[in-house]
Specification:
The structure is a single chain. This protein is elongated. The protein has 4 helices and 2 strands; from the N terminus they run αββααα. It has one domain. Helix content is 71%, strand content 9%. It is mainly α. Strand 1 and strand 2 form a beta hairpin.
Length: 93
């Protein structure tokens, strides 16, 4: 593969990843805390964002973006998506 092409692809992936992180950040800022259903646990938006960045791969973050974008297209709340993410991250601890 051409060296310039591979460098270009890497830059594109980094920009895409940063765009996804910014989108997650902007959506999470709409909620001060995320409550975990059926548990007495609340996670602050910034803590959940940090946890997502730390624990999830870029491919998993792509999947989250897909879910968020589809929920927004349907004028649905994205908070339940973040509740499921927080629940799954807690179970993996």
């Amino acid at each position: 593969m051409n060296k310039n092409l591979s460098k270009s692809l890497l830059i594109h992936k980094e920009k895409k990843y940063q765009y996804h992180i910014n989108l997650i950040h902007n959506e999470l800022m709409k909620y001060h805390t995320i409550k975990i259903p059926n548990q007495n646990i609340e996670i602050k938006n910034q803590e959940l964002e940090d946890w997502i960045i730390e624990k999830l791969s870029p491919e998993e973050i792509d999947e989250i973006i897909f879910l968020l974008e589809n929920a927004k297209k349907r004028a649905s709340s994205v908070k339940p998506i973040f509740q499921v993410i927080a629940t799954s991250l807690l179970k993996n601890v």
